[in-house]
Design brief:
single chain; seven-stranded mixed β-barrel
Length: 215
């Protein structure tokens, strides 16, 4: 609410919560919001016009532009709609190549973005069967687990969880998938790719820690 000081919860900044706060002008001076209230830009809800509601207030006029910009970045069409193969450059590279984005390229290599740059991104490869060393479960690697699935029992490092957004492309994340922290790859923003999903916020900080420890 306008007049309240924004407050981050422990670990939120490290997990990637860096967007500026959106202020709300309350409909009544008695209305308050929890300091932990958060906008979910990646999901929109259809609300019928005749639904009964309580008027909380309005987004502050000076924050409307930021609200729409963040929404468009998170919900931009990720690939060209006329690509028959499913692989194409991102329509909105700035909105697509965010920290934690996971995608597969034409050569069947899967990457996770760790540091977006201007015109390219620094990414970590996600290795699968046939590309792993015999000691891949040791230092330098961490298992990749789709959100909602159980991780392998014999892990050395805490796994990296991914929210899969394209189930048809999820085959690259089998039980042997591992993030390789030993090498950072530079991927141009015009690469032919296919969206797979994104690293969940709780795992982004873990991924960065592993990268710093390894390098």
């Amino acid at each position: 609410m306008r007049g309240q000081k924004p407050q981050l919860l422990p670990g939120e900044y490290e997990a990637g919560l860096t967007k500026r706060p959106i202020r709300i002008d309350p409909a009544d001076s008695s209305i308050t919001l929890e300091l932990a209230s958060r906008l979910h830009y990646a999901k929109a809800y259809p609300i019928e016009m005749n639904v009964k509601v309580n008027d909380i207030g309005n987004v502050a006029p000076e924050d409307l532009q930021a609200l729409m910009m963040y929404y468009q970045e998170e919900n931009a069409l990720q690939t060209h709609p006329y690509s028959s193969s499913g692989f194409s450059p991102a329509v909105n590279p700035k909105g697509f190549f965010k920290k934690g984005r996971v995608f597969t390229t034409l050569d069947a290599q899967t990457f996770a973005v760790v540091r977006p740059q201007n015109g390219y991104s620094l990414c970590l490869a996600i290795d699968g069967p046939g590309t792993l060393d015999s000691d891949a479960s040791a230092g330098g690697h961490a298992a990749v687990v789709p959100l909602g699935q159980q991780p392998p029992d014999d892990l050395v490092a805490k796994p990296i969880y991914i929210k899969v957004e394209d189930q048809s492309a999820a085959g690259s994340l089998d039980a042997m998938a591992r993030v390789n922290f030993s090498q950072v790859h530079q991927i141009n923003e015009n690469v032919q790719m296919r969206n797979l999903g994104r690293v969940v916020p709780e795992s982004i900080h873990q991924m960065e820690q592993y990268l710093n420890w390894t390098n």
